[in-house]
Structures are given as structure tokens and as C-alpha cells.
Amino acid sequence: MKISPEEFARALGLSVISATGRQKERSIGVADLCRPGLQFSGYFDVFAYERPQVIGKTEMAYLTSLSEDVLVRRLDQYFSYDIPCIIIARGMECPQSLLRHAQRSGVPVYGTQEETSAFSATAMVYLSEAFAPKQTCHGVLLDVYGVGVMITGESGVGKSECALELVKHGHQLVADDVVDISRVGKVLWGEAPEMVRDFMELRGVGIVDIKEIFGIGAVVRRMKVDLVIHMEFWTEGKEYDRLGTMDKTMDVLGVRIPLLELPVRPGRSLATIVEIAARNWRLRAEGYNAADELDRRLAMHYRQADEAK
């Protein structure tokens, strides 16, 4: 995947100092930045030229300290590389020599009023998300007590109905039916495709707009995926986890996510079970495991019984 310098500039609110021209289509293909201080000093043995080039106060001070002939030589060598774009931070004025070289080479130059470190942090977050591996899953994603719960299962098993009940309980819908998942580092983030955001399909009713019915507080645009609950129709004879000792996981984009299999049968309050599962996941994440606590109490009981004999 690649993004254009123009798209990068729009996303970060950069001002245009010099447009790209028509010499060459340029693109950004890595989630990183380069501050070219060493290159301005003449060192090009290692140069991450394929990254957006960020010029801060230090780089600018060094450039302006060079004599005109040395500056021209350094910039000639600098612009001989296929640079995607240049960003000048702190609202600093672009030196005319740098501007002329950029225009001649067709390299767009942008400006930002932000300090260099603040801009770099924002840009890194944007690039990391833009280039994150992505996957689309069939399911429903909600924020339940601050836990990102993705409900999966066959069509007609009751995922949307369960999600609707959870929204009525005060939880927030992220996506219904289609969940776009991206991996940033080791964290999975889910959101709805823009076309179907805030909508839910209910058999017998049709498409409903959750935000319009329940208010803006009933939806959230993006959420981490912490737990997967797979709903399936109750199968007679199948062994389901009754103690919480069968630790199952689901692989999504190389990240293992805890997986619970929830059998569906008449009379079960699925929304309440999902709420309890989310609270229990949070307790386990904090180090408390109810099954382990029960084992500890049983072991203590039998030990005391043996001592009493």
C-alpha cells in the first residue's frame, strides 16, 4: 500500500509551500519519518530517502550556516534521491535554495506550525494506522464496560439482536455485520466501513440507525478488539466450557485474541452473559481468575479436612 504526499498533507493539515509539479508521481510507502541532519552535513552512506523528510529547528539552523557553494553541493546530492516530500516544522521560512532545488526536482514542500517533535508524533500515528495490516470480519463489535467485544457466529444466530439489547443497556455499538480490523503494533482496532457506520440490520424490521434512535452516545467510531465471543446454536452432546479453564484463542492478523464459545438456546439472556464475560475478561486481565480461586479454596478445604483426621 502507498499513499500520495497530497493525501499525507491533507490528513495532517499541512500548508503547501511548493506543489509537486508534473515531473513524477511520488508516493509514501513506509510508516516512518526522516530528519536529514546528517545528510545536510554530507553523510549519505545511510539515508532513509524513501520517508517523508522533516526539517526542524536544528536542521534549518545548520542549513543557514553553510556557505552558498557548500549548500548547493549538499542540496544537489540530497535531491538526487527519490524523496517523496519535505515538511518544514515550526512555521519556519523555506530557504530559497532549498525551494529552487525542490521545484526543479518535483519534490513537494509542506509546512506546519507545530513543533518538530509534536508533528513527528502525530505523523507517526497517522502513518502507522495508514499502513497497518487490515482484515474484514463478519460480526458485531461493541464497547462493553470499556472492553472491545466482537460477537461472531452464523447468520441468524442472534448477533444483532444481542448487540441491540447491549445498546439498550447503555453500551456502545462500533460495527454491525462488517468489522474492518487493523493491527497497530500488537493491538487490534475495529471500526465499521463508512458506508454502513451506525446502521444495524434486524430481521423482520430492516435497517435501523442506532445513532438516530438512541443518540450519539450509543455509538463509537473505533474500539480495540479485546475479546471474541462466538455464538453458535446449541449442539446436543457437545462439551462446552463450564469452569472457565478451556482457554481458547482466535488468530486475527497474527494476534491471539481470547475466544469464548457461547451456545444459543431459548431462555438464555445473551446480553447479560456478554456483559458478565466482558467483566470477567477485565478481572482476568488484572490478575484475578475465578476458576483458579475456586481451585485454591477446594485445595484448602481438602487440606484442612486431611489435617482434621
Structure commentary:
With 309 residues, this protein is α/β, with parallel strands linked by helices. The chain is 35% helix and 27% strand. It contains 10 helices and 14 strands. The chain has helices at residues 5-12, 37-40, 57-65, 68-78, 96-105, 116-130, 159-168, 210-214, 270-285, 290-308, and strands spanning 15-18, 53-55, 86-88, 109-111, 134-144, 147-153, 172-184, 187-191, 199-202, 206-209, 222-224, 227-233, 248-252, 255-264. Strands 11-8-7-5-6-12-14-13 form an 8-stranded mixed β-sheet. Strand 13 and strand 14 (255-264) form a beta hairpin. Helix 7 packs across helix 9 (270-285). It is elongated. The model has no long low-confidence stretch (mean pLDDT 91).
Concise summary:
It is built from 10 helices and 14 strands. The radius of gyration is 28 Å and the shape is elongated.
What descriptors fit this protein?
single chain, 309 residues
Helical residue percent band: 25-40%
What is the 3D form?
elongated
Strand segment tally: 14
User: Which strands sit side by side, in order, in the main sheet?
Assistant: 11-8-7-5-6-12-14-13
SSE layout and pairing:
Blueprint: H1 5-12, E1 15-18, H2 37-40, E2 53-55, H3 57-65, H4 68-78, E3 86-88, H5 96-105, E4 109-111, H6 116-130, E5 134-144, E6 147-153, H7 159-168, E7 172-184, E8 187-191, E9 199-202, E10 206-209, H8 210-214, E11 222-224, E12 227-233, E13 248-252, E14 255-264, H9 270-285, H10 290-308
